[in-house]
Design brief:
Elements lengths: L5 E4 L3 H12 L7 E4 L3 H11 L2 E2 L2 H7 L2 E4 L3 H11 L8 E4 L6 H5 L8 E5 L9 E7 L5 H11 L3 E5 L5 H9 L1 H18 L4 H22 L3 H8 L5 H11 L2 H24 L4
Parallel strand pairs: 1-2, 1-4, 2-3, 4-5, 5-6, 7-8
Antiparallel strand pairs: 6-7
Helix pairs in contact: 7-12, 8-9
The structure holds 1,4-dihydronicotinamide adenine dinucleotide and (2S)-3,4-dihydro-2H-pyrrole-2-carboxylic acid (A1CAB).
The site of 1,4-dihydronicotinamide adenine dinucleotide has 23 residues, from α1 and α4.
């Protein structure tokens, strides 16, 4: 492991997930900094993780890697405050959905490398999917350092930045779609008369097992689904209903909407704030 220090700028939900992952992977707390807007949040993180909450400007001067984890809508204001004060030699890694690396480069001194990352909350159980793209001034060394930060909490993949909005729609938001489906299936179990805890236990183990088969068998999902679907059986009846209700089309539309929203955020944020 390198001797770099990392600051999470804007340690909210995702920032905390990343911080906890770094600690689990053996990153010393002494080399982790976090910034927050509210002092109570800073105290909570210090107590929970033993890391040092600092002001943004302190983080910028003391840490080698600046992980920007504020909402995209807050990024311009954040960079107005300290962007031009980022000293040479730092690496800026954006976790913000939608924002292109050029958004950061325009608000940083020339020569500061920017890397764009889209990770997801399964980082909490070391099963994240993290997509990494180089932006201005980012070299192989910067990409490798970014991978070093995210690899302990799951898989990493390099993608061209032009694919990041689609990645955001798929794997960034993906856990939310999945939880919605599970929630709906638990509700269905209750409708069929099962006690809630029974429906939940049945579904949770079913999705864990199905996800492991998908990953470990390497089979296409169609093949795995076919193996469950017996002739004139129960699954075929259910799938007819799902197709009738347009579940597949709903996913196509939903992910397109997520991709479009990422692009819209970028357009809105590109407008001057002052
Ligand atoms: N939640 C998720 O699953 C994922 C989120 N993201 C991205 O991560 C970023 C954060 O998302 P969440 O954690 O869900 O939001 P969040 O609202 O929980 O976290 C953002 C945090 O930044 C803090 N903040 C805002 N301005 C600040 C400032 N000037 N100085 C210090 N702290 C400041 C806020 O107080 C808040 O705690 C977003 O850009 C989002 O697009 C990316 C992938 C997945
Ligand atoms: O909902 C969002 O905007 C963020 C980006 C991907 C997941 N959550």
């Amino acid at each position: 492991m390198t001797e770099h220090s990392v600051a999470v700028i804007g340690a909210g939900k995702l920032g905390e997930v990343v911080l906890s992952g770094l600690l689990r992977s053996g990153w010393p707390a002494a080399r982790l900094l976090a910034t927050t807007r509210r002092p109570e949040r800073a105290a909570e993180l210090a107590e929970r993780y033993g890391i040092r909450p600092v002001l943004n400007l302190t983080a910028v001067t003391q840490a080698d890697v600046l992980l920007i984890a504020v909402k995209p809508q807050d990024a311009a204001k954040l960079l107005d405050d300290f962007g031009m004060k980022v000293p040479p030699g730092k690496l800026v890694v954006s976790l913000c959905a939608g924002l292109p690396t050029s958004f950061f480069a325009e608000r940083l001194p020339g020569g500061i490398p920017v890397v764009r990352v889209m990770t997801n909350t399964p980082a909490l159980v070391d099963e994240a999917m993290t997509a990494i793209s180089p932006g201005p001034y980012a070299t192989e060394e910067h990409l490798a350092l970014t991978e070093e930060i995210f690899r302990p909490v799951g898989r990493t993949m390099r993608v061209p930045e032009s694919q990041q909005d689609a990645v955001t729609a798929l794997s960034g938001s993906g856990p939310a779609y999945f939880y919605l489906l599970v929630e709906a299936m638990i509700d269905a179990g209750i409708l069929l008369g099962l006690p809630r805890h029974v429906a939940q236990d049945l579904m949770v183990q079913t999705v864990v097992g199905s996800a492991m088969m998908l990953r470990d068998s390497g089979e296409h999902p169609v093949k795995l689904r076919e193996a469950v679907t017996s002739p004139a059986g129960t699954t075929a009846s259910a799938i007819r209903e799902l197709e009738k209700h347009g579940v597949r089309a709903a996913f196509l539309d939903a992910l397109e909407a997520a991709r479009n929203r990422a692009a819209e955020i970028a357009t809105q944020m590109a407008a001057p704030t002052r």
